[in-house]
Design brief:
Blueprint: H1 16-47, H2 53-77, H3 79-106, H4 113-127, H5 129-141
Helix pairs in contact: 1-2, 1-3, 2-3
């Protein structure tokens, strides 16, 4: 008979990795919710054609904490909303990791010796007609 239990080690409640993940996920969820509130309010203020930047700033500074606190108290009272928030924090961490990965990939500078050697070979090959023709032929016949 096969066991359906996971072979992964169980994390205890006082495990430092679990505690760190919980703290990071809670704070990331809170800040992403605040950012979502600010974005939504900014879109609403833009639609209302409020031109003055000072008035927009005052409205955002007053309404964002009010919306945040009203939502948090409502989530605390509703067990289903609390469950949704518990699941959403994992999604927030995944999105944050994907955004960080995309940022690092976009700003990655490869300064390795192999990369410099490859660039030098390409530049040298461009100067020699026979090398350029052979490289083009190789690229065109590759499967």
């Amino acid at each position: 008979m096969t066991s359906t239990e996971s072979t992964a080690p169980k994390l205890r409640e006082d495990d430092p990795i679990k505690v760190l993940f919980d703290m990071a996920s809670y704070w990331a969820t809170i800040w992403s919710f605040i950012a979502l509130c600010l974005w939504f309010e900014h879109a609403v203020l833009k639609r209302l054609d409020i031109e003055s930047g000072n008035i927009r700033l005052v409205i955002l500074l007053v309404s964002t904490p009010a919306i945040f606190l009203a939502t948090v108290t409502r989530i605390e009272k509703n067990p289903r909303a609390r469950l949704i928030l518990e699941r959403a924090r994992y999604i927030v961490i995944l999105v944050a990791a994907a955004l960080l990965g995309a940022y690092l990939h976009a700003n990655h500078k490869d300064d390795s010796y192999e990369n410099a050697l490859r660039d030098g070979a390409v530049l040298a090959c461009l100067k020699m007609t026979a090398c350029k023709a052979a490289a083009t032929e190789y690229a065109n016949t590759r499967e």
